[in-house]
Amino acid sequence: MAKPRIATKPTEVRDQLGEASKGIAGEPNWPTTAPTQVKVDAIQASLILAIDAVTGLEAQLAIARTGLHFYRDTGVEVMKNIDNVTDGLYGPEGDEKMNFGLPPKKTHGELHHLSRVVITKIQDGVAPASIYVDWDPEEGAGAYQIEWYTDSAMTQQVGNAAVTQSQFEIGGLIPGQQYWIQVRAVRGDEFAQWSDVATRVANL
């Protein structure tokens, strides 16, 4: 398809005006009723400013789109985390989820029972006198409970925590003291069995 005789794209109109201004300047018999070169130059300058403004707006719009996508994606991740945490606190079908803008899930009894988690790693933590514990995540768990003891009979509990991730660093321990640790998954009022006990001596 041939290009239109009169340009339609702003950049092409600008170029066409530039060519026209050159033609006006070199044509002694140019009709007196036609736009003067000064007027054509002024129109061209205005069009250049308009194109620059549009380009600037397009750049701002692109930045806005990027920001919109970023904040949208961030918001989605935040709501997913809230959904998981409220599952653990109130259960997937708990009406309390409405307080967080989330409708309860309709599982119709299809939700599987929580299984015993398996501790996969126990090692020195990053901080002094700490122990890092990692375990396999349990599908459907809203949170995990972790407890640590100073005896193998698990009667001398010295600490506990509730976390939403499948790892935890126990800090503030006594260097050189041996600890016995267990973890279980939680969802609403449902508690899984405790994991097998893992043990480690706190680092110096």
Query: Which geometry do the CA atoms define?
Result: elongated
Strand and helix order: HHEEEEEEEE
**Share of β-strand residues:** 15-25%
Mean pLDDT: 79
Give the tally of β-strands: 8
Question: What is the number of helices?
Answer: 2
What percent of the residues sit in helical stretches (DSSP H or I)?
A: 25-40%
- How far apart lie the N and C ends? 80 Å
Instruction: Count up the domains.
Output: 2
Radius of gyration: 35 Å
Pairing-aware structural class of the strands and helices? Answer: alpha+beta
pLDDT < 50 runs, ≥5 residues: none
User: Describe the biggest sheet?
Assistant: 5 strands, antiparallel
Please give a quick description of this structure.
34% of the residues lie in helices and 22% in strands.
Explain what the structure shows:
By secondary structure, the protein is α+β, with helices and mostly antiparallel strands. The chain folds into 2 domains: 1-111, no CATH class; 119-201, Immunoglobulin-like (Sandwich). 34% of the residues lie in helices and 22% in strands. The chain has 2 helices and 8 strands. The chain has helices at 10-25, 37-90, and strands at residues 119-124, 131-135, 143-149, 157-163, 167-170, 178-187, 190-191, 198-201. Strands 3, 4, 6, 7 and 8 form a 5-stranded antiparallel β-sheet that branches. Helix 1 packs antiparallel against helix 2 (37-90). It is elongated. The mean pLDDT is 79.
